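Cross-posted from the bioinformatics board.
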Amino acid sequence: MKSILPILTVVAAIFAIWYAFAVILNAPWAYSKAERADKTLSFSEMVSDTMAQDKPLLPAPHQVAVEIWKTTALKNVTSKRSLVYHGWITLQATALGFAFGIGLGIILAVAIVYSRVMDMSVMPWIIASQTVPILAIAPMIVVVLAAMQVDDIVAKGVISMYLSFFPVVVGMVKGLRSPDTMLLDQMKTYSASPSQAFWKLRLPASAPYLFASLKVGVAASLIGAVVAELSLSQNGGLGARLLAGSYYGQTIQIWSALLAAATLAALMVFAISAIEKVTLRRMGMAQ
Amino acid sequence: MMWILGSLVFWALAVVLNLYLVRNKVAGAGFIVPVLFGITVLVVWEGMVRGFNVSPVLLPPPSWVGVALVSKTHILWQDLVQTFFKGALTGYFIGCGSAVLIAIAIDRSPFLQRGLLPVGNFIAALPIVGLAPIMVMWFGFDWHSKAAVVVAMVFFPMLVNTVQGLQASDHMQRDLMRTYAASYWASLVKLRLPAAMPFIFNGLKISTTLALIGAIVAEFFGSPIKGMGFRISTEVGRLSLDMVWAEITVAAILGSAFYGIVALTEKRLTFWHPSQRKQR
């Protein structure tokens, strides 16, 4: 708890810098408006103008806050202008892709731990797969999958899956291998079958590693869904809001979509840490 | 039919060969096995695409991609220079460099560090790519906006890693420096920066992929008529997927090479670290 004060200080500093930049970046437009209206601006007038422009280069934090309030609390949840509506679409794609990613990641990890051939042939490619800028080619994958009559949400999920399976594989391989020889020998003295050794020793031992990678994976999964929506924008989603905002120069809309995505990411990471805490305590693994 | 059967037979043979190589611990298996796996994937891809007559608009066979790679080298090279050398690399150096400098600057204040680590970790998990349209609006269509996106993407992962790294030297070592009457700067340069190297390199490695992603994605929001992101989005529109896959191949090789260079440098500079020592 003693780090609350420093965190608040840093957050306050970020807001101060944000306001300062809003003034600096929006000032030229404020001055040119005044010039056309044959007025001269005093410094305080200029500052108050930079805080209240329609399409500012950098909207001030309170403008974004007002926009978020307007598009969440004051709009009907089913309205196409509601951020909740778009956030829900993104959340669905993220959850689907994340579920795929966890499944694929765990299956691959088990195969890698139990088969030396898999370990040697697949593992280097899994690592190499992450140096491919998949986010950059996401639009193409989405278009191809859409052409194959795949549902949109699945197409988005595939991108999310690709980004989220990697942390799961790496974490699970580490976790499944974490029981040392002593423990494995102990299982042998109980004459446990390999499947018993897996269910009763290896799998439980990997739980802390799994949760650590889930937290990384869920954030990656959300990024994947947002980028996929840039190319599947007809169905909405936070990515679509970003794109629409950038087409029409609605900077306030862009920033509010960004902050909504950030909040979503924070909530999901928070939810996973809560589950982690409960599960690990139940398993007797909490520190 | 021939194509499908042929690729299946090749697949079976490759699996048997890999099993044999691994069982008998043949020298060089660590290199041959993954390569053989990669080749098998390509062969099966080629065979299935030809055998099932998959439309090249959906998935071109790898041989077409190879042809595009060879015949359109000049376009690929021009895109690569625009996206990688101008956009990604500039942003990478500015972003990583400023992050390290700022980490050193706040290093003297434990208060700021305690506040910055959680906030930085949080920001590092956010979809910062979303800043791309804003950066394009601020810095124009050319590579400057791409570099700016890259800076924003690599800054926080790098900052968090460096701050953590600067705390990595333990008390004994710092006390030893004090008994030598080392000044703050001397102990920074001779003890704490070297001790932070593994962390700094971890950040640098994460940032390589981020840099490439940032530069390419930023091009979707507006770019001059060259660049890998521009090419990918326009060629998808023209349905010439062989060219798209060629760009992807270039990006993949580039990403791996960039990562490899950083990893090699790490090996040379942090040879003392346990994770870099030779396995016996």
